[in-house]
Design goal:
Blueprint: H1 2-25, H2 41-51, H3 54-57, H4 67-77, H5 82-95, H6 107-117, H7 122-134, H8 138-148, H9 156-168, H10 172-184, H11 191-198
């Protein structure tokens, strides 16, 4: 009986947490969509042509509204739109704010919405992990990036970013493990290797097999070069 009660309490706790997240970060229902960025890109073309132009994506200027407004529109139509999440993150970091002008939600809310919409999207977790690291929440970043591995274990960018965060935390065994994996998978930036060399922690992988091709996803920002 006690086990049953504990299970009921746990389920109720999860439901309460989900309800609180929905209240704080909004329902996912939208006038258009929401559509999964990974599988429904054709349906998003009509949104992108107006609200996620190259000028918007690269933060040169809004198209129908403010930059934050156009990116927000895109993310309401597709909460897990990888490139739009990346752009909103970069805009928030550039402006030193959690909620850029025109955005309906904070950055953490956009990631909450993306993960509620697509809980198995490892790229969303990767971008969120980078954001957490760049806002000095490195232990949270490790947790989120490690979670992403269950979906994107062959992603060179993911291992690279995770290695950088571990190196910042001075967890050098894990930093080296992910650095070696990143370079084996095709990572080309030298920053992680340089960081480990400077700490006297770098060594080449004993695995001399041919490098596997890097995962073909949107190039994600590194925590550092």
């Amino acid at each position: 009986m006690r086990l049953i009660l504990n299970c009921i309490v746990a389920v109720c706790g999860c439901m309460a947490a989900a309800a609180h997240a929905q209240e704080a970060c909004g329902q996912l229902a939208n006038a258009y969509g929401p559509y999964d960025y990974r599988t429904e890109k054709p349906k998003l073309a009509i949104v992108e042509v107006a609200h996620f132009t190259p000028d918007v994506e690269f933060l040169r200027g809004g198209n129908t509204s403010t930059l934050g407004g156009d990116i927000d529109y895109t993310l309401r139509a597709s909460p897990n739109h990888h490139r739009a999440l990346n752009s909103m993150m970069n805009l928030a970091l550039r402006l030193h704010t959690k909620k850029p002008q025109g955005a309906h939600y904070t950055l953490d809310c956009y990631f909450d919405r993306a993960l509620r919409f697509a809980p198995n999207d490892g790229i969303v977790r990767e971008i969120y992990g980078v954001y957490l690291s760049r806002t000095d929440r490195k232990r949270d970043a490790v947790r989120v990036l490690e979670d992403a591995l269950q979906f994107e274990n062959d992603d060179a960018n993911l291992h690279y970013n995770l290695g950088l965060v571990y190196a910042d935390l001075k967890d050098y065994p894990n930093a080296l493990k992910h650095a070696q994996l990143a370079y084996r998978l095709g990572a080309s930036l030298p920053g992680l290797r340089n960081k480990l060399e400077a700490a006297g922690q770098w060594r080449e992988s004993a695995d001399k097999e041919a490098a596997a091709p890097a995962s073909a996803g949107v190039p994600l920002p590194r925590v550092a070069q």
